[in-house]
Amino acid sequence: MRTEILEQLEYGLGKDPAHAQLYDWRMAVSLAVRKRIMAPWFAATRRTYDEGLKRVYYLSMEFLIGRSLEDAIMNLGLPEVIREACEGLGLDLRQIELDEPDAALGNGGLGRLASCYLESMSSLGCPAHGYGIRFEHGLFRQSFHEGRQIEDPEDWLIQRHAWEFERPEASFHVGFGGEVSVRDGKAAWTPEERVIASAYDTPVIGWQGRWANTLRLWGALPESLLDLGSFNKGDFVGAARPEALARTISRVLYPDDTTPEGKALRLRQEYFFTAASLGDILRRFRTEYDDLRILPQKVAIQLNDTHPAIAGPELVRLLHDVNGLELDEAIECARASLSYTNHTLMPEALESWPEWLMGQLLPRHLQLIERIDDWHARHKPGRKVAIRSHGEVGMGALSFVMAHKVNGVSALHTDLMKKTVFKDFNRLHPGRIVNQTNGVTPRRWLNTCNPGLSGLITRAIGDGWVGDLEKLAGLDPFADDPGFITDFAAVKRANKEALACYVKDRIGVAIDPAAMFDVQIKRIHEYKRQHLNILQAIAHWQAIHDNPNGDWVPRVRFFAGKAAPGYVLAKEIIHLINAVAEVINADPVTAPFLKVAFLPNYNVSLAELMIPAADLSEQISTAGKEASGTGNMKLALNGALTIGTLDGANVEIRERVGEENFFTFGLTADMVEARRAVPDHAAEAIRASATLGRAIAAIDKGAFLSRAPHIFRPLTSDLKSRDYFLVCSDFDGYAATQRAVDEAFREAKGWTRMAALNTARSGWFSSDRAIRGYMADIWNVKPAM
Ligand code: F58
User: Fold this and answer.
1) Cβ neighbours of 386 (radius 10 Å)
2) Catalytic residue chosen out of the listed positions 376, 634, 656, 753
3) How large a percentage of the chain has pLDDT more than 90?
4) pTM of the model
């Protein structure tokens, strides 16, 4: 391995070892590791062809990958070999691993789920491709200036990406605009404009290196790089226009779509990667089979949310317009191949496109959507559901109609889907909606990120759990083994010390690793209610002040997460948390008992540091709003206890870990609507809770930003009036439950026992289990291993 690394450095990168920098060594090590992936990768592809195996295609606008080197080393079983080789070369492997930038081609849970699922498909030997966009700039970099969020562009591709293979030979022309004409009774679309989708492949190696699938990301290029006419006239900027326009499509993840230009770009991105992926899927299919009607027997295409929903009409176009299948046959064939995962019930997040925009960019698709609506109405006459209505194309409805299975991501979410957004569709198509509760890969989210706990588990029950997480159940009896509990607590303590060092280093706040580490890490959103958490922190701080000699349980309240750049209230929540943190962290009276730390730039790598160090996991969304959550699973798996509402997968986590090992509070999904209907529910809740009233009053009086007390007014007045997410109504229940958490934490042994039981009973939340569910219930695919 040492020779291999040197060879990569010298001959692959052209670098003299005497002058190599950390980046060069990281590239050399990565390329040496990557080489070991080639044999299983080729073998998997060959087997899939040789045995005519059915393939899964996972279409996702987002893949939140994080770093890859450590994951690859672990899955290939190479940690010892690489460590020794690095030592022999005088290199620190950890330092090399940490030098890798995160690939952050996603916003949050949805994108991270896609990455966990790709890893599980490889680990299980499910023949699959992931398809997405190779964004040049991933999710923005977050920093704070005077407590406010600042966004800077992220530039992970400034350095060479070690894991990808450019495939200029695999490219597709993707059209936009233009006209539809009828020739010989057949519709033909002549786009006005075309861009090239060019492929970049990354192998995804599974556990124990036995199988590897491909993540194929598309980059956008112009058909012609330069407008030579303009160039020769001296208009150099104009000459580069075609290139700039085309490349914009794969430039930035989820651009601001509040402007008409932004909205059109998003639709272009969606069609761009969907069309290229379907083109590629049919090309591959045609190398093996002639009859497109057997497509559903050989191909399962999963739509990760509605972002690739245009796949429905695009596949119909390819089958009907281009390949001559009858329209009904084309629709049936497409439907039998497609399935759709819904990740949200929030009406504002359900995509729809104005017909005029779709007609402009994708005229043939708009026509086909009308035909699909007609076809649907013919099959279900007299029903009022339609994809097109009020001048808009509903992408949820389109996905539903064009999928043979539609799934939710937790039991509660699936149930609510049937009762709310897809109520009418569900009545028309009973049985189409199924549930697949989310899962997370145990390789990254326990084995790799928490080596201390992994080692302890392996010493207790062997190492089979990494490939079969339900084996963690074998830990249950160890929860009553004092030696195991002592070791479990020692591992947690060491992880907390590591995080404490990072916090001191990064934001200069000194924290005590003996304190309870209370973490809320996720996107900042009103429904996730970070403001409920900080309000209770304020109340807690005030209570300590009232009685500084009280027997308080020391706590550090951690926050991390990004707000969408255009989401004003979410950014205000960040500002408030930072302002509160500044005051509390500077208060000598409360210092022994309370600190608040908002860590900037939350990403996969920071999650890998925070999750193993957490004692308490905050999962406090308004019931009915969080589709599932996956951070909740990662935290429970790593031995954090949850304080949570009965929302998303919290419900299933609680069922499995036991309600006595879970802190539940708050309105249930059934109660939420009724509560919202109570006139002045917020004012009533504030009147009933002196603690809450006092906390809000402190914000209003400028206790946290004396120079500009009005700054948080929009937030507090919303809380006092509309309070759509019922922060006030849930406050007292939350505060009381936090006191119960404190009491439990005092009993260190009892707490660790509960933590260990959370780990032991979280095995079901593996993405391997989830993927087996998709394979059996949706894709009809058998594992190749
Ligand atoms: C998340 N959705 C859900 N959307 O909120 C979460 O409950 C669930 O666990 C997770 O999906 C996986 O199923 C989510 O992350 C997004 O990131 C959107 C992507 C498109 C732009 C707007 C955000």
Assistant:
1) 18
2) 634
3) 95
4) 0.98
